[in-house]
Amino acid sequence: MRPIDERCINTIRMLSADAVEAARSGHPGLPMGAAPMVYTLWTRFLKHNPRNPAWPNRDRFIFSAGHGSMLLYSLLHLTGYDLFLDDLKSFRQWDSRTPGHPEVGVTAGVEATTGPLGQGFANGVGMAIAQAHLAAKFNRPDFDIVDHYIYGFCSDGDLMEGISHEAASLAGHLKLGRIIYLYDDNRISIEGSTDLAFTEGRGPRLTACGWHVQEVTDGNDPDAIEAAIRAAQAETNRPSLIAVRTHIGYGSPNKQDSEKAHGEPLGAEELLLTKQNLNWPAEPTFFIPEEVVKEMRTAVDRGQAWEDEWQERMDAYRKAHPEAAGALDRMMNLEFPEDWESRIPEFPPDLTGMPTRVASGKALNALASVIPGLMGGSADLGPSNKTLLEGESDFQAGNYGGRNLRFGVREHGMTAVLNGMALYGGFIPYGGTFLIFSEYMRPAVRMAALMGLHVIYVFTHDSIGLGEDGPTHQPVEQLAGLRAIPNLTVIRPGDANETAQAWRVAMNLTGGPVALVLTRQGVPTLERDDCGSARDLEKGAYVLRDPQGKDPEMILIGSGSELNTVMAAADLLAQEGIAVRVVSMPSWELFDQQPEAYRRSVLPPNIPLRMAVEAGSPQGWHYYVGDRGKVLGIDRFGASAPYKVLFEKYGITARHVYEEAKALYKQKNGIGL
Question: Are 300 and 128 in contact (CB under 8 A)?
Fold first, then answer.
């Protein structure tokens, strides 16, 4: 190791330790132990441009072990990103650009929000899928314009979490050779030695999944780490994991190799002893030697040279292959054809109708035919979710140009992979499964919402209406759970035309993920000659029917398969002389974003008699029906039976809605029952 290498590495260590000490919060041990391996990657391999963090052909670096974020922040500052020493000093403070765990969009150079362990590991697999697909579509024999690596940094905790098992299995199957992950094998977690709970052979497990695995026994040997990375680059048919044996809290006389260096500051006394041990000045804190700044900031010139060389190649590519270059630009900018909305199907009124999952499949295929960045699949449920793209091949090793992703039964991994594709750029990824299995997806759905990613989830089999599979597969509380996630838009369309419009809306909602919640069973396609347009779905709720010649006395609200039930109940009430407004409310989130005047026009305050009907948990609906209203939902688990029997037994029928609404009407109007 060169003296300057050691000086740079110790600078990273001590910046990290000082920041954690100043914040009185954080994880100093990981940066202190892992600094040599990440320094080696960043100074000898990583192609990036600190002055342009969004350079398209940069290598991606995913810091999956987000608790060690000060390691990343120190590198970003030292290599010249828009992150200053004062930012390091405000680590973990209000409105800081150095939050406790890395957040994309907050800190320049952060490629993904990480912290929940394993998420970043899987995000990198999604990025590798995106990279491989673009390379297959747009590279030409003399022009490798998509030509970079997906590097990652992961910890023991990442490899313990089940999501990394799912993602590693998929990456190995797909032979994603551009993935190179550095594994911080320090063998310490919060409770102590990993021997307490984590003793399987990590390397053999990844080898069995189809990975190229190497071990570096001395985490303080940059040359050995460099050799391992070069060997990983030479392995083009397998993703690579390099297990680097490190010592958490390296340099700390009393806390090295101890859980005490994991999740708490070293303490002023121990930090002083550590600096003495590493021959580092005690003062000033956040000390950066001038020679270290000079060495590390060479990344700026190298990065600009890499980008300039790629730009020259790209300019030549545009001249040689103008159509392909234009298509690449449109895809990366997510530009849609001007007439893309005209592709959305319209369905004629039909009492028999179709399952909304079927209508979704038709809309998806129509849009995918003109929007190449719309790419995805399902968790082994393509025929049921209707998520297969007709006429498109599968994305597989040897055919990375395919657009149908086969995720296997890996819901959690699938969802985080979709996040990686969205983070990469150029894609609107989608993934499907049954609504009940959103439970397996929830952590990564939350991360998509937190990052504001444009991802679309196709959740089918949305209620007890799926029938005979029984309560293990029948969602009850899942809708309420999804609606509780900030920045996630949930849409439960009521018929085929609302479903088609839901896809239109989902394509336009760029600031966060969208969940489309769809039926297994058929629902009528509504006659709309004298009622609201399906395009009004974009407003979240709209008046579907008003009484003829009278002001409404009561409002019935429905979503999904219950919309037709509500319509039929309104007909029965009308026969009793009760004037009923029917409101379709497929999306709370979209409705809540509308101006107050519009919301009051749909749900006027002077019509307090309201009833909402949904075959799921009633939680949250009371906000819309008010104190004098009623919610007809399901507050217990389902059962195994044909779906029509279940709806009858659970009271989700037009007759029961009519009876409940009539009783509410009489009660509020003082009429004897």
Answer: no
Tell me, what amino acid is at 174?
L
Alpha-carbon span 364 to 610, nearest angstrom: 35
183: β partners = 154, 243
Tokens representing residue 486 in the block: 């900030």
Token digits for 431? 């993934």
Q: Render pLDDT for 40-88 as a digit per residue (tens, 0 to 9).
A: 999 999 999 999 999 999 999 999 999 999 999 999 999 999 999 999 9
Reading the block at residue 75, the tokens are 């590198």
Active site residues: 411
Tell me the pLDDT tens digit for each residue of 540-589: 999 999 998 899 999 999 999 999 999 999 999 999 999 999 999 999 99
Residue 234 burial (CB count, 10 A): 10
Helices (H), 69-201: 69-78, 85-89, 119-138, 156-160, 162-174
Residues facing residue 245 across a β-bridge = 185
Residue type, 101: H
**516, 520, 521, 523: CA torsion to nearest 10:** 20
- To which residue do tokens 């100074």 refer? 43
Any idea which residue has 């399987």 for tokens?
A: 200
User: pTM of the entire structure?
Assistant: 0.98
SS (H, E, C) 477-505: CHHHHHHCCCCCEEECCCCHHHHHHHHHH
